[in-house]
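It would be a great kindness if you could assist me with a short task in structural biology. The matter concerns a single protein, recorded as an amino acid sequence and a row of backbone structure tokens. The record follows directly beneath this note:
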Amino acid sequence: QIKALNLTADFEVFVSLSCHNCPDVVQALNLIAIYNPGTTATMIDGAFFQEEVEQRKIMAVPMLFQNSQHIGQGRMTLEEIIAKLDSGAAVKDAEKLNAKAAFDVLVIGGGPAGNTAAIYAARKGIRTGIVAERFGGQVMDTMDIENFTSVTKTQGPKFAAAMEEHVREYEVDIMNLQKVASIKGAEETASGLVEVT
């Protein structure tokens, strides 16, 4: 999908050395630049370029620009950045989702509660899917997690990666980067099934 972007662009990402989300965004942009020869990726440490930080009104990092236009800020995965850049991604994703068979259980939300629900359903042999705007949920923004049963201390992204690995041990269809717009109850649909848009 990165190669198919066929981009010619100049990306700039403003970072700070204390930012725990910045390295992932910088690495994602580097991958995009490697596979798109007309593209550059520049990392800028805001501490050394205060005038530019003030001029662009940068209040938080990472702050991402494409051809000098702001396109995102904060924690972003490679998947999320590509979704912003690939103008046809939404249509392709909608076609893939519409082609899926019905689920017995469709969990909306990819945080710890949603993942736990999906694991328990899948363990019982129930056709299960997860729809999540961001797999891991708010845990992805949490630096330190302490006193979670059986885990004295961990970091949010590490915990989310372990959750995803656990969920993938079962036949759970994970539909990431998706936001639920509406839910129709079985009594509202011609099929008699709950429909999630």
About this structure: The longest helix spans residues 22-35. Helices lie at 22-35, 50-55, 78-85, 89-98, 112-123, 156-167. The first strand starts at residue 10 and ends at 15. The two ends are 24 Å apart (CA to CA).
